Amino acid sequence: MRWRGREQSTNVEDRRRSGGRVAVAGGGLGLIIIAILYALLGGNPQRVLQQQQQVAVQAPGEQQELTPEEKERGEFASVVLRDTEEVWSQLFQENGLRYEPPKMVLFSGSIRSACGGATAASGPFYCPADQKVYLDTSFFTQLARDLQAPGDFAQAYVIAHEVGHHVQNLLGQTEVVDQIRRTRRPEEANAASVRLELQADFYAGCMLHHAQRMKQIIEPGDVEEALRAATAIGDDRLQAKSQGYIVPESFTHGTSEQRLRWFTKGLETGDLSQGDTFSATQL
């Protein structure tokens, strides 16, 4: 992906220099596994943490200098965030709307958001309450090592997906799903969550489509990187890898095939009118 030397966003809060330690009540490795399965790439990991009665607390620590690799990851995330700002500002304007970009918080180890506390193991997430995307950039290593989805375009997909949740929040789609979660049976709530996540995948593809049109950012092999990432984080694949079997009614993000399909549709068309996952009869 062509990103070096390009404009960075001014909406980044880099908190990685502040050292911190996490106190977690119970759970241990089990919490990490649950968080990876249900919170990776979209949604709010605090729901899982709260259900397991976990408490994550960020304690002050020594100041830490960023390594050259960490600095580069922060610059990359800032460039991608700037791409999302330009693309979504244009798309909103074309539809008679005004886009208010989210803040991105870069953290290391643990963080406390308006949605509660989380650790790096929870994965990237968007918090509607403060309209911020939270990202521990060490997740990119996990994406490559544990999920076999390396590459900067795969990382751009992760960021674009989380910003897609911000777009949903601005358009009122998040509140609709939250209402379903509060009032319906768990199976119905999970089904609504899947549609929300698949639409965020579509929005991610759509954003990258327009970023390519505007800036020619894609290099050979980039699309394949993003497609591997979309495939790697399907509920079916994550559950099968973790527990050896799948429970479809517990899915909250969609299968690998579904995530790949909706991301690809957005990437190929860039047409927002084709991203209504809530009305789709087939996902």
TrEMBL record:
Signal sequence coordinates: none
GO CC annotations, alphabetized: membrane
Record-annotated membrane-spanning stretches: 21-41
Subcellular location: Membrane
Pfam families with a match to the protein in the record: Zn_peptidase (PF04228)
Sorted UniProt keywords: Membrane, Transmembrane, Transmembrane helix
InterPro entries: Uncharacterised_pept_Zn_put
Main location: membrane
The organism's place on the tree of life at top rank: Bacteria
Membrane topology summary: Single-pass membrane protein
Keyword Transcription regulation appears in the UniProt entry: no
PANTHER family named in the record: INNER MEMBRANE PROTEIN, PUTATIVE MEMBRANE PROTEIN YPFJ
Name under which the protein is recorded: Metalloprotease
The species this protein was found in: Roseiconus nitratireducens
